[in-house]
Amino acid sequence: MPRVLAEPGVVTLLGGIDTGKTTFGLELARRAHAAGLATAIVDADVGQSTVGPPTTVGLRHVRHAGDLERDVLRTDALAFVGSVSPRGHSLSLVTGTAKLVARARNEGAELVVVDTTGLVAGLAGQRLKFHKLDMVRPDHVVGFQRGGELEPLLGIARRFTTAKVHEIPVGDDVPARSVEDRVTYREQRFAAYFAPGVSRWRVKPTVFMPSLPPGFDLALLDGLVVGMEDGCGHCPGIGVLEFDAAEEILRMVSPVSEGVRGLRLGSIRIDTSGRSRGPVDLRQLFGTE
């Protein structure tokens, strides 16, 4: 940490599932804030979010120590990805992360900690992390090395970026969470997002991206997570679609009720208690390839 704090900038954290990235990132941000550095966190771990709800990349400026608590719900900006997994959503994940890092720097952050997903293996992991590093252009890359699983990614960071690369070995004492624990955490984060109260309003079939095909059955969108867009490139929040069979209309259910011009369709279904109803393949839903 001292080397990073001595030369602050954008710090991207790389590592597999349960390697301690988030704990390290929060501690780094805590020390930077205590040292008087303007600090921000960009959380791009869309399935295990600590900043913002799952399915989004979240930005939080650290204004006081309480902003670094994991259960703090406040965000300064969101970018919608639409899934709790990066697979099949690399473009929105990479562009959303780059957008929020740029915003953090433009808003005065001297140190930006970028947390990432645990997808590090195979071609999918290499391509995702290459494009993220290429767009974010970090000053530091911190790799949490378990065995040799990060060697391809750290090689990419060394060859294709100018970042200083730091390796941290992951010991056997780092606790691993079960799949069930990870699902429970994700559902709790969704539930907490909707807990303050929601509004319901009717939405027109013409407001979606991607656009609905002619004659599309609106009932197929029931429970789908959607990202709100304000028309200026910002995401005010997320919501859940609710199909009213009696009136054959769609309603939006969300704690956000203003500043929305369009809705981006996500790829999972949930209810507002946070319970998952499973993934959705939009290509199959739309009957296209």
CATH architectural label of the largest domain:
3-Layer(aba) Sandwich
Termini distance?
A: 47 Å
Q: Could you tell me the mean pLDDT?
A: 93
Task: From the 3D structure, determine the CATH topology of the largest domain.
Answer: Rossmann fold
In the predicted model, the low-confidence regions spanning at least 5 consecutive residues are none
Largest sheet: 7 strands, mixed
Judged by helices, strands and strand pairing, the structural class is: alpha/beta
- The figure for the number of domains is 2
Helix content: 25-40%
Main-sheet strand order equals: 4-3-2-5-1-6-7
| Strand fraction | 25-35%
Radius of gyration, CA atoms, in whole angstroms: 19 Å
Q: What is the succession of H and E elements?
A: HEHEEEHEHEHEHEEEEEEEH
Instruction: State the total count of DSSP E strands.
Output: 14
In short:
The protein is of the alpha/beta class and 289 residues long.
Could you explain how this protein is built, in words?
This protein is of the alpha/beta class. The protein has 2 domains: 2-169, 3-Layer(aba) Sandwich (Rossmann fold), CATH 3.40.50; 181-286, Elongation Factor Tu (Ef-tu), domain 3 (Beta Barrel). It has helices at residues 2-6, 21-34, 90-106, 122-136, 151-160, 179-194, 282-286; strands at 10-15, 39-43, 56-62, 77-80, 111-115, 140-145, 164-169, 199-203, 208-209, 224-229, 238-244, 249-254, 262-270, 276-279. A 7-stranded mixed β-sheet has the order 4-3-2-5-1-6-7, with helices on both faces. The longest helix has 17 residues, at 90-106. The radius of gyration is 19 Å and the shape is globular. The model has no long low-confidence stretch (mean pLDDT 93).
